[in-house]
Structure formats: C-alpha cells, structure tokens
C-alpha cells in the first residue's frame, strides 16, 4: 500500500485540471484513469468546446467563468501553447428565447461587454446566417472556443512535471473511508490517501451510487461537414454561435484546422442508463437532423458529411453541476456531472477541487452545486 495526499479518479477535463492544481501545490498526488488519457468514451473530446462569459444558464456562473479564463491563460503561459481562441460568440434566438434573454440578463447583471443585435444587424455583420426577421442575438466579443484534447494533455503534462503520478487503464472498484483517510480499491491492490477526488464523468454513479437516481446519460452527436462555402465559415469569418431555433437548439464552430465545420444539437440525442450504452455509433438520422438545421440557418456550411462522433452528457434534473464534499465522508470530493456545459469551467473547477481536497472548503461560490439539493 502506498500513501498519497490525494488520489484523483478520472483524468478527463475536471480530473486532469485537478491533478494539475494539486501537483502545483506540492502535494503527493496520484491520478487514475480507467482508459488511456485522451480517450473518446466520455465528455472531454471533439476538437472544440465553447467558452463564454455571459452565461444564459444562470448569472451565478459568471464569476467562475471569469476565473476560468484567467486559469486557461495561465495554462497557456506555463505550457507555451494556445488552447483558447477568441472569436466572439453569437447567441441567437427566436422571440422569447431563454438563451438570448438569459445571456442578456447575465451580461447586464455582471457588467459584461455585449451587444444586442436584431436580425438585420446580424445579416450585415454575418451574412452567412439566414434568420427570420424576428430573431435577435446577444454578441459577446470575449467568447470563443477551447481545444479540449490539447488542454487536457497539457494539464497532465504539467502535473507530471510537478511530480504527479498516474495509473492508466486501471479501473477503480471502490472508494472507502478509513480512520486516517480513504482507501482506493483496485483490481490488484489497495491505495491509501488522505483524500480523494472522484471526477469520473459518466461513470460517477458507479463510485457514488447515491447520485444514480438523479442522473441521466445522454448520447450527443457531433458532426463535421465539408462546407459549401469554406471561406464563409473559416476562423476569422465566423464566430462560435448557438441558435435557439424553431425545432432545435444547435451550436457550431468556425473551421480552424481544416477538419471541417463542426456543429451539434444541444441536449439533442437519446438517453441511456449506463455509460457503455451510449457508445452507439451515430447514424443517418443524426446527420439529417444537423444538415437540415444548417440548411435552415447556415447554408454555407451545409455540405457533405466528413465525420461524426459521439460524446456523453451526464445531466442532473436542474442541469447544474455537482461539486461537493461527499455526505458519506468529507475526505471524498465529488466532481460531476456537468450537464453538458462544463468543459469551459474545467480550469477553475480543477482549482476548486484542489481546494476541497486539501482544505475542505474553497473561496469560490459553489453553493449552487451542493449534492444535498437532491435530498427528499
């Protein structure tokens, strides 16, 4: 048995960031991943993830988003690599859109730079879009996208450089409190630590069974199309966007790497009860859904399909996160699920998890994410 200060279980977005922050604080830390780091079975892949400040989901996320930007820039400085690209973000919607109204409310409450654009002004600035005359948008100039595979790998690289250890292709069978800390049960051994962070993504309920009744796993399909008008949707011409349309909510990214125009429906696919079930291949119906959406709103991008991939949303009933100390033992930190909108916060959530694992508290306001809200 080997004793660590902290063991981090799961090395996706939140786990890799947690390992990074813990190792930088001089802790003896071990990260455990059941697959290879960078795998595509969970929620931390797909070449790009949106980031924005004016948070339509709820204004209380804005302070965390601000800190996330700071931490992403610090990661870039330390790694000497670019993971965050600012393009601006357009949040477009029909009259009464919760996305437009929510983004506007958050931007106004927190004094964020933004503009409200009518359909005509959107057409002048971004003629690629074909929108009904009664649509409007909130423009956030600070928005953009992250490169998740690169960011995760940099968090792990810097963590290892600071002394972190890793076990990969190693499933965790259980996490048990002891008189002196926690016990991590593996197939062939037991590891002792003062505390543990469980950042297991879609597999969280296997280690935190009290969460299982409150979680829904949703298979999401990511599509890359060969655009009809490549110049119209390349980086520098098209911002990151989300459209709250008549029949769907979908988002997209400029083509920044030559891999095609990426888009996806938000909360758009089937649901399952086990993480493995959601690894079903995308099919023609998924392609048609996104192609039809592009034909309606961004025909310049609606060319032939290049590829499709799946990822998983792990959702709570209120679609807020779960970041808290375990009710079973405060030396166990729970970090999941993120309900399909968490990646942008990984850099700050990693900091929060390190705080909780070391001190049992954090200066960041995470009261909205308490596990106790599901009681009763």
Tell me what you see in this structure:
- The chain has about 375 residues and is of the alpha+beta class.
- It has two domains: about 5-45 and about 150-210 and about 320-375, FAD/NAD(P)-binding domain (3-Layer(bba) Sandwich); about 85-140 and about 215-315, 2-Layer Sandwich (D-Amino Acid Oxidase, Chain A, domain 2).
- It contains eight helices and 20 strands.
- The protein has helices spanning about 15-25, 60-80, 100-110, 120-125, 150-160, 205, 285-295, 345-360, and strands spanning about 5-10, 30, 50, 85, 90-95, 115-120, 135-140, 145, 165, 170-175, 180-185, 190-200, 215-225, 240-245, 250-255, 260-265, 270, 305-315, 325, 330-335.
- The strands form three sheets. Strands 5, 6, 7, 13, 14, 15, 16, 17 and 18 form a nine-stranded mixed β-sheet that branches. Strands 1, 2, 9, 10, 11, 12, 19 and 20 form an eight-stranded mixed β-sheet that branches.
- A hairpin with a 4-residue loop joins strand 14 (about 240-245) and strand 15 (about 250-255).
- It is globular and about 65 Å long.
- The model has no long low-confidence stretch (mean pLDDT about 95).
- This is N-methyl-L-tryptophan oxidase.
- Its cofactor is FAD.
- InterPro entries: FAD-dep_OxRdtase, FAD/NAD-bd_sf, MTOX.
- It is an enzyme of class 1 (oxidoreductase).
- Keywords: FAD, Flavoprotein, Oxidoreductase.
